[in-house]
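We treat protein structure as text, and this decision shapes the records that our systems exchange. We quote a single record here, exactly as it is kept in our systems:
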Amino acid sequence: MPSSAHTPHALALTADDGYPLMAQVVPAHSVERARILVAGATAVPQRFYQPFAAFAAERGYTTLTLDYRGVGLSRPPSLRGFEMRYLDWSFRDLPAAIEAFVRPDVPLFYVGHSHGGHAFGLLPNPERVARVYTFGTGAGWVGWMPPAERLRVRALWHLVGPLLVRTHGYLAWKRLALGEDLPRGVFEDWKRWCRHPRYFFDDPTLRDEAIRLYDRIRTPIVAANALDDLWALPASRDAFMSGYRHAPVRTVDIDPRARGIGSIGHIGYFHRRARPLWEDVLAWFGEAL
């Protein structure tokens, strides 16, 4: 059993614009080999990643999970009228977590889930990170999805989502059991980028800045996507990851049946049954130690 020194603890952070954020640190159970920052998916609270954090801690990795502003423990008293943009998570929230968590004596690794893989290229401080492993990062465009999923997602973007936003003032996704509620600004940006085959790289209001920022990245990246991840199939991943054109990127197609872990979809990468995938992550990080 871990001692009190190895007990998970809350960590209060402050973004550079003064916004308060809540994170959790799970210390390594033995000599600390390295640190891992988990950059979660849109509408997924940090508590979802705690099993992975505990798994990594048992193997000598201190891990930090974070709720982005507007989500989970970083949510304001009311989302109605709460002003923010999706890019705040990349430009302000994750950088604050990195600066609070990085140490000079051990490497910092980064595990991104879906949005977490998008966010890395936008960070103002990516040089702090030694290696990146992403799950389920894709371009979000319905054209990359199977026909049935396209219809469902179009209904979410154009019918259900706008209705929820008009009614509540924010994307009340909890009512649909699709994840955490999201601020209006996140929904608006997300919907706009998902209109394009290459996500925000095709958005004329962001394209030039995104290309400039991503062109800085030289960090080694593994991008793993499940063959049953209908929101981020390998073709979608490849369309997005082409934005990391100067980074060494290795892509991995996960066959859940062949790995013996059942269905994965877009969320199951961090279910406990996905431990073989977590072993892959730590093995690759371990090669850099």
Summary: The two ends are 25 Å apart (CA to CA).
